[in-house]
Amino acid sequence: MQKRFLPWLDRTGRLSPLKLVVFVCLFVPGVWVSTSYFAGALGARPLTEVLHQAGLWMLRFLFMALAVTPLRELLDWPRLVIVRRMLGVAAFAYGASHLLLYATDEAFDLGKVASEIALRFYLTMGLVALLGLGTLAATSTDAMIRRLGGKRWQKLHRIVYGIGVLGVIHYFIQAKANVSEPFFMAGLYLWLMSYRAVAATRGKKGPLPLLAAALLVLAAAAATAFGEASYFWIKLGVDPLRVLAANVTFVAGPRPSFFVLLAGLAVILLVLLRRGAELLWPAKPRPGVRLSPARSHPATSAP
Predict the structure, then answer these.
(1) What string of DSSP letters covers 120-153?
(2) Is 291 helix (H, G, I), strand (E, B) or coil?
(3) Does the structure show a pLDDT above 70 at 291?
(4) Closest Cα partner for 20 from 6, 4, 1, 5?
(5) What is the average pLDDT value for the chain, to the nearest integer?
(6) What is the DSSP letter of 107?
(7) From CA 127, how far away is CA 169, in angstroms rounded?
(8) Exposure pattern of 99-126 as b/e (b: 16+ CB <10 Å)?
(9) CB contact at 8 A, 291 and 297
(10) Is-contact 180 188, C-beta < 8 A?
């Protein structure tokens, strides 16, 4: 392997601490789940639990990749985009492991695996999402970007938004009774997509104002609460007002909407801390580096 293809190097061939840290962290869930499996710490059906964990981390890494754009804009940290490719490829790798583990759980009866995927709608959606991730992973190289052309490549990679929807629905149906985390994922997806939609209406006027981003967080959390209340009303006949009240009183513990709100406000707080630090300790210009007039750090364009 040539040095320039090492994943922890930037485009100039230099070590990127950010890429190195993210690259190492991508393996942590797999190592943790594998260790727990061999230690017998995954319950009565350890293989099934490993299977579920692989699928869950596929979705988590996919959402981390989707979060790169809002975070790099709000934090004014253009170089954050260099880890998006790794996150997307990791999502595909965990998804492929999820499918392989499913085949293993079925004793590699490929006929049964194929029939189950064809007959169960949520499994079909999961496979379509995985094939979509595979397409994005295969076309994520610089060579494929040049071959497809920038505009066609961008249009192709917008299918990631649909993949996110399929992943959330697949997880929601598979989770059956415990739908708290699927609702949390749905709330995060709503915030990520609403951020993009509102930012698109502004054209090239810079990042979304922090107040607008905070209001979108509140809207996503409220939509999560109403979605959960509607679900329990339709499926179990539970009074939706009771579920909505539980989102405020915590009588049944923190609800998914609370974690959506917490995650969003954590981003807002991080942005405030970063901007405060920039005011207290302005970045000093390096020789030959142009400073952005809006920020006191090098103006770097995202690839």
Answers:
(1) -HHHHHHHHHHHHHHHHHHT-SHHHHHHH-HHHH
(2) strand
(3) no
(4) 6
(5) 88
(6) T
(7) 12
(8) bebbeeeeeeeeeebeeebeeeeebebb
(9) yes
(10) no
Q: How far apart are the first and last CA of the chain?
A: 24
Alpha-carbon gap, residue 261 to 252, rounded angstroms: 17
User: Using one digit for the tens of pLDDT, what is the confidence trace for 222-253?
Assistant: 999 999 999 999 998 999 999 999 999 888 88
Share of the chain above pLDDT 70, in %: 91
pLDDT over 90 at 203, yes or no: no
Whether the predicted pLDDT of 168 surpasses 90: yes
Tokens for 149? 């052309």
Res. 298: pLDDT tops 80: no
Alpha helices in the chain (DSSP H): 17-38, 46-74, 84-105, 110-119, 121-138, 142-148, 150-157, 159-175, 180-201, 210-236, 240-249, 256-280
Q: Is the separation of the CB atoms in 66 and 2 below 8 Å?
A: no
Handedness of CA 96, 260, 189, 128 (dihedral sign): positive
Predicted structure pTM score: 0.88
* Residue 252, token pair as written in the block: 């049944």
Mean pLDDT of 199-221: 88
The label of the residue with tokens 């009565």 reads 44
